[in-house]
Amino acid sequence: MEETKVIELLLTAEVYNRYEELTEDDIPKEIRKIFYGKSGISRPLVVKMDTAKKVSKNIDSIKSLPFIDFNEFSKQFKITSFDLAIQWFAKRGLEQIKKNPVLAYYYQNYDSLGVSYEEAKRFNKPKYGDREWLKTIIAELEKNEQTAEMLGLVRIYSPEDIKIDFASIALTDEQIREFDKIEVALERRDYLKEIGVLEVGKLMFIGPPGTGKTTTARALSKRLHLPLVEVKLSMITSQYLGETSKNIEKVFEIAKRLSPCILFIDEFDYVAKTRTSDEHAAVKRAVNTLLKSIDEINLVEDGVILIAATNHPSLLDTAVWRRFDKIIEFPEPPEIIRRRIFELSLSRIKGEFDIDELVKLTDGFTGADIKLVIREAVLNSLMMNMEGLDQKLLVEAIGEVRERLNLKTSY
Ligand SMILES: Nc1ncnc2c1ncn2[C@@H]1O[C@H](COP(=O)(O)OP(=O)(O)OP(=O)(O)O)[C@@H](O)[C@H]1O
Ligand SMILES: [Mg+2]
């Protein structure tokens, strides 16, 4: 029903304006998005014609409802009788009320509709997962020269803009369990703080190139609805004395400003690597700054999940190593993981495949190599004007990728 959508919008605005204790997180995500301005969402919420049009194209019938007034001059909708509107919507919008914390807050004390604010809140995603919310925070940081400079060091993603789903990555049960733990810790931050268990949420991903470390960090941001702050240590390492230390501090500062979020530090061994080459006071200082920054950030108090990734764990010294509460391995994928990657990547492609054979033939391949196999096979099939794939094309593509891998090791 199109009418109920607009009335839900109007009532949500009205109830939100009346009850100061309601927060932006209580407004349903789809409605919240309509109200974002340059500096976030401002009270009171005002519903104009173009606001209403965002939830329904057909709004003329709303104007004739006895509890609605539309001002032709200001183009603004108003509820003229709150009680009537509440009654009208109770009869027609119960399903919407159950999922709308703002409305559930009001309606839980109204008649016996059996709605609960707490229950409704579970349906609603918090605002820090909104692309628009992140934009307003970034716009705020850009206003100040110092913080604007910090933004240049990192890449920031809204979870809404991340394409990769957690479910489309082949992970071991052990890995999945660790990510489940992080999710629970995030939900129970208050409890963990209360009992003083703070050292959670610092993960180190180790493994060879192409095994899914970056992909998993991004997918985790989408799964947990947290913004992702991504930085490569090589990108913030400067040849100028002291700059690297300052940059490291700035990156951690940005993460705290965007909290709750995930801070993903890629090429984590980079600082360690430079240390072994040019033993140099500035580099030592950079490592110390990194250690100190890691110590001074945690999920429970700061809302920051720290994920570091490296291909060269042996380069990291023990001081760095022991600051991470979980080391998550991304090894060269065993058969069971290769099987899963094939299954996932072929699930939307037409054709009959002998996955057992594909798994056998790809010993030593990483996830990235398998993706390359599929891509090659698909392109070859397109060259032949063929729809979908077959086993032969896949086996040939495995051969091509195998040759390429051999080239890499033969020089
Ligand atoms: N376990 C996996 N499941 C699904 N896809 C995978 C897996 N491992 C790798 N891939 C695919 O391989 C590609 C490369 O993965 P990714 O960039 O995450 O690797 P990485 O471990 O970060 O490598 P590097 O150490 O070089 O940064 C991506 O397209 C990803 O989808
Ligand atoms: Mg990577």
UniProtKB/TrEMBL annotation:
Stretches assigned to the AAA+ ATPase domain: 199-334
Protein name: ATPases of the AAA+ class
CDD domains: RecA-like_protease (cd19481)
Membrane-crossing residue ranges in chain numbering: none
Pfam families recorded: AAA, AAA_lid_3
InterPro entries associated with the record: 26S_Proteasome_ATPase, AAA+_ATPase, AAA_lid_3, ATPase_AAA_core, ATPase_AAA_CS, P-loop_NTPase
GO molecular-function terms, A-Z: ATP binding; ATP hydrolysis activity
Keyword terms, alphabetized: ATP-binding, Nucleotide-binding
Family: Belongs to the AAA ATPase family.
Domain of life according to the entry: Archaea
SUPFAM superfamilies, per database record: P-loop containing nucleoside triphosphate hydrolases
